[in-house]
Write a structure and sequence with these properties.
The complex is a heterodimer of chains A (about 500) and B (about 375). In chain A, a hairpin with a 4-residue loop joins strand 6 (about 425-430) and strand 7. Helices cover about 50% and strands about 15% of the residues of chain A. Chain A has helices spanning about 10-25, 40-45, 60-70, 100-115, 130-145, 150-160, 200, 205-225, 235-240, 245-265, 270-285, 295-305, 315-330, 335-340, 345, 355-365, 370-375, 380-385, 405-415, 450-465; strands spanning about 30-35, 80-85, 90-95, 385-395, 400-405, 425-430, 435-445, 470-475, 480-485, 490-495. Chain A is globular and about 95 Å long. Among the domains of chain A are: about 10-120 and about 265-290, Arc Repressor Mutant, subunit A, CATH 1.10.10; about 305-415, no CATH class; about 425-500, no CATH class. Chain A contains 20 helices and 10 strands. Chain A has a 5-stranded mixed β-sheet. Chain B has 3 domains: about 1-50 and about 100-115, no CATH class; about 130-190, no CATH class; about 195-365, Rossmann fold (3-Layer(aba) Sandwich). Chain B has helices at about 5-20, 25-30, 30-35, 60, 105-115, 150-165, 210-230, 250-255, 265-275, 300-315, 330-340, 360-365, and strands spanning about 40-45, 65, 75, 100-105, 130-140, 180-190, 195-200, 230-240, 245, 285-290, 320-325, 345-350. In chain B, the strands form 3 sheets. Chain B has a 6-stranded mixed β-sheet with strand order 9-8-7-10-11-12, sandwiched between helices. In chain B, strands 1-4 form a two-stranded antiparallel sheet. In chain B, strands 5-6 form a two-stranded antiparallel sheet. Chain B starts with a helix and ends with a helix. Classes of the chains: A alpha+beta (about 500), B alpha/beta (about 375). Strand 5 of chain A pairs antiparallel with strand 3 of chain B.
Chain lengths: ~500, ~375
């Protein structure tokens, strides 16, 4: 697998042609190395998340079986895969028609340009092929020493909490280094300077008492552990949980890979939209022969198909990018545009600025899915593209269209993208009840946790923390503390403010 | 080429196997597998294989979609595939309850291991042979597509050399019609043991839906096991109340009649089928009879014992009687059988008190290794 076989000549020519077009348009990508795989190997590589060199784990086997089955039943087929490394590796499916391969190559150029230039990918390891191989050898080494099942079981535990990370922490300093603040001294209660005889009036006893309380609170907070609730639960566990060396290594591997994949989940809509925009642009205006148009249209329609109750990130992404391009070409932005309330004027608004292309290049550089939707998902776009929000109707026990109201649809969309669709969970206290228990807190945003999963996940956390673990959450609008200790699982009613 | 993924897949299969084994009693009791049977495989829902995570509960979440439709239009009933939100359209396969396909052979193996069932030693296996065709022969006639080029060339060469038309200077060999040789099949004897399962069921008024469900589940597992033990196996189905008749599989499980019960009628028909179609020196015969144990009269029970003694038992590997508990039945028949056949090795009785007892009953029937 690691040997790079040369691409057949006709595909080499095709790659060269497509890349010349892409570069003419201003796309800027890492070198791309294509490999043609039969569907079995394609499914294998896909099961491994794009990397042929992963550590051994049964879930890869499970994913492989799912992929193979749905391929064999003709339900799905992986056309293309590309991984974020420099140089980028991309895989083509053997036996695809030449139009398909052409489309894939143009699509891949878009992805690799996105990997290289989008801000949220800027911290990813571009040598991840080696990274994954190193992880694999670390895990294998520990498996030899500890036994395969022992290590695999612990990896199950780590995977169970791999979503408790904080991808944004790479770009902002959430917790300043300890010791960087003011050195702690025996602090006097702060008071307003006053002459002796005025003291009683300027700093009355009640005021002094309040000041003293404030100081005490501050100090109490300092003693808290962690000082601020930790979003990166895995990092906290690595630092504070009583782990054996091999366990720490495994957890670190899982955390590292979770961070590597996180930007892809954060930019799915943009990334697919961008790649779709470019395959469509390159093929329809440059690379397509007359005889290939129908096949191309067929393939493209498949990519952009929508079905009820399912959001197609390719479709949303590409349509929104095109919408932005149109608006900036016509100058439909800025104060004047916002303040205009005549539909007729707006409909024919065209300042002939031609800024569209530059604008979408800027968008692909600076935005992620949330900011992209937040800023550019407009009322016009929502109506034009027929978006709706859906939900579950208990009485009819079916999924129904809930609303076509712009505000609601947009909120629903943003909610489902927040934190990559995962619940926000922090470490609140590493010394809960002053007995070394771990307390997590779920920032409830209107959706309860899946209780069965939560229960099992707590059990897994207990295996890492090795002391009882609790999580405060809200279930059916009531505060609840779920706990797993050596005596098993329990639930109790709880109030957020009294937990300490 | 052996792929790296094969190792991971084998681990996965092993885990599944373990899970199925751990939960076998549950799977057997609730009969879910019976409904999910395909041709050679059974798909088994395994929710517990998924890795648990803190995640949002499904129903409150909802999502965003695109396309036509009025507010209030249904997008799909519960139980159908749940619509996916954009968060799920990620780089990982979507989250569905995992269903794995397990071959019936493997399932039988798991059942055998869990119940510690002995392998069956077929009788008469040396006498019975079937024939399998293999393409190892050569013939002088056949379709062009099966022409054996080398043999044909050789024949042509031989002919030309012997008739003197072959010249070393101009070594052109042209086959004529007689030279042509074609690949062909030869029949090879293949030792094989044949077996037949004869299911009998009481469908009188006192056998309710629940009792029949138990029989259905139990016969699925008996079938699965016996099939894993014999290459060729036939199944016959007899239903009876006061009269017995042979039916097909679907009718067997769906018929409900009222009226009395004459068990001897079924045994007579069973004995007749055995005598007419399944000579006991060629067949391994497994009659199973399920009833709630309520026979019409003592005389009829005597008749049953008589048929069993003289006709069925001498020619069967094992006769199995399963008594399903029913609120209407007296349950006397099992006692009668046990009384008459206390020392008979190839007659097995089992009382099935409810779905939970199915597994033990299977063990009763198959634990003898006959």
């Amino acid at each position: 697998m690691s040997l790079h076989k040369p691409l057949p000549v006709h595909l080499q020519d095709m790659q060269q042609e497509i890349e010349v077009h892409a570069k003419d348009y201003g796309l800027d990508f890492f070198p791309i190395l294509y490999e043609v795989l039969d569907y079995k190997t394609m499914n294998e590589v896909a099961a491994y998340g794009g990397f042929p060199t992963r550590y051994p784990h049964w879930r890869f086997g499970m994913d492989y079986e799912k992929l193979s089955k749905s391929y064999e039943y003709g339900m799905s087929k992986i056309y293309e895969m590309v991984i974020n490394t420099n140089p980028s590796y991309a895989y083509l499916l053997e036996g695809n028609s030449l139009v398909d391969q052409k489309l894939v190559m143009a699509h891949v150029c878009g992805h690799v340009d996105f990997f290289k230039n989008n801000y949220y990918f800027s911290k990813t390891n571009r040598k991840m092929i080696d990274g994954m191989a190193n992880h694999a050898s670390t895990v294998r080494r520990h498996m030899r020493a500890q036994g395969q099942s022992v290590v695999e079981d612990f990896i199950d535990v780590c995977l169970s909490i791999e979503n408790l990370i904080d991808p944004m922490s790479l770009f902002i300093a959430r917790d300043p280094k300890p010791g960087s603040g003011e050195p702690e001294e025996a602090q006097e209660t702060p008071r307003i300077p006053a002459k002796g005889y005025m003291e009683e009036y300027i700093n009355p006893p009640e005021f002094m008492e309040a000041q003293r309380q404030k100081l005490a609170d501050e100090q109490k907070k300092q003693k808290k552990f962690p000082v601020e609730p930790a979003r990166d639960v895995l990092k906290f566990l690595l630092e504070a949980a009583p782990l054996a060396d091999w366990e720490r290594d495994c957890l670190e591997v899982i955390r590292n890979e979770a961070y590597y994949y996180a930007p892809q989940a954060m930019t799915k809509i943009m990334n697919e939209g961008w790649a779709t925009y470019w395959h469509s642009k390159i093929l329809t205006s440059k690379a397509l022969k007359g005889s290939e148009v129908v096949d191309y249209a067929d393939a493209c329609a498949g990519v952009l198909a929508t079905s009820p109750g399912r959001l197609n990130p390719y479709k949303l992404g590409v349509e929104l990018l095109r919408h932005i391009e149109m608006r900036w070409d016509r100058g439909q932005f800025g104060q004047e545009w916002e303040e205009c309330d005549s539909m007729a004027v707006k409909a024919s608004w065209d300042r002939r600025l031609g800024l569209g292309r530059d604008k979408i290049f800027e968008v692909r550089k600076l935005y992620n899915d949330i900011t992209f939707i937040d800023e550019y998902f407009t009322l016009d776009f929502c109506i034009d593209q027929k978006f709706y929000s859906f939900g579950y109707n208990e009485r009819a026990s079916s999924w129904e269209i809930m609303s076509r109201d712009f505000e609601k649809v947009k909120k629903q969309l943003l909610d489902s993208l927040t934190n990559r669709g995962q619940p926000v969970i922090r470490v609140d206290n590493g010394n809960f009840k002053n007995t070394g228990e771990l307390l997590l807190r779920h920032d409830h945003e209107g959706v309860d946790l899946d209780m069965n999963h939560a229960k099992d996940t707590l059990q897994n956390l207990f295996k890492v923390w090795k002391r009882p673990v609790s999580i405060f959450t809200i279930v059916e609008e009531k505060g609840k503390l779920l706990r797993h200790g050596s005596d098993g699982y329990s639930e109790s009613a709880a109030d957020a403010s009294t937990l300490d | 080429m052996s792929q790296k993924i094969d190792l991971d897949q084998r681990r996965f299969r092993k885990i599944i196997r373990g899970k199925i084994k751990d939960n076998l009693r549950k799977y057997i009791s609730n009969g879910e597998m019976v409904a999910r049977k395909g041709k050679d495989t059974v798909s088994i829902p395994l929710p517990s294989v998924d890795i648990p995570r803190f995640k949002h509960g499904g129903k409150q979440q909802g999502g965003v979609g695109q396309g036509d439709g009025e507010v209030g239009d249904s997008l799909g009933k519960d139980g159908e595939e749940q619509p996916g939100g954009p968060g799920e359209a990620g780089d990982k396969p979507g989250e569905h309850a995992l269903e794995v396909d397990v071959s019936l052979e493997e399932l039988a193996e798991i059942l055998g291991e869990e119940l510690a069932l002995p392998r069956i030693e077929p009788k008469g296996s040396e006498k019975i042979t079937s024939h399998k065709d293999r393409y190892t022969g050569i013939r002088t006639t056949g379709p062009e597509s099966l022409k054996h080029f080398r043999r044909t060339y050789k024949e042509a060469l031989k002919r030309q050399v012997s008739t003197g038309t072959y010249s070393k200077k101009n070594p052109i060999v042209i086959p004529i019609k007689d030279d042509k040789r074609f690949r062909s099949w030869k029949s090879e004897p293949l030792p094989q043991s044949s077996a037949v399962i004869i299911y009998m069921m009481d469908v009188s008024g006192s056998m309710g839906d629940e009792q029949k469900e138990i029989v259905r589940i139990e016969s699925f597992w008996l079938d699965t096991w016996l099939r894993s033990q014999y290459k060729g196996i036939e199944s016959r189905y007899i239903i009876h109340d006061a009269m017995a008749r042979e039916v097909d599989r679907d009718t067997f499980f769906s018929t409900r009649e009222s009226g009395g019960t004459m068990i001897s009628s079924a045994y007579k028909l069973c004995a007749k089928i055995m005598e007419d179609e399944y000579p006991s020196d060629e067949y391994n015969i497994y009659p199973f009879h399920f009833s709630d144990g309520d026979n019409w009269s003592v005389d009829d029970t005597v008749a049953c014992v008589d048929i069993l003694n003289n006709q069925i038992l001498p020619n069967s590997n094992q006769f199995s009687y399963g008594q399903v508990e029913s609120p209407y039945g007296s349950g006397q028949f099992i006692k009668d059988l046990e009384e008459h056949f206390a020392d008979t090795e190839n007659l097995v009785t089992s009382e099935i008190k409810g779905k939970d007892a199915i597994m033990d009953s299977i063990k009763d029937f198959l634990g003898q290794g006959k």
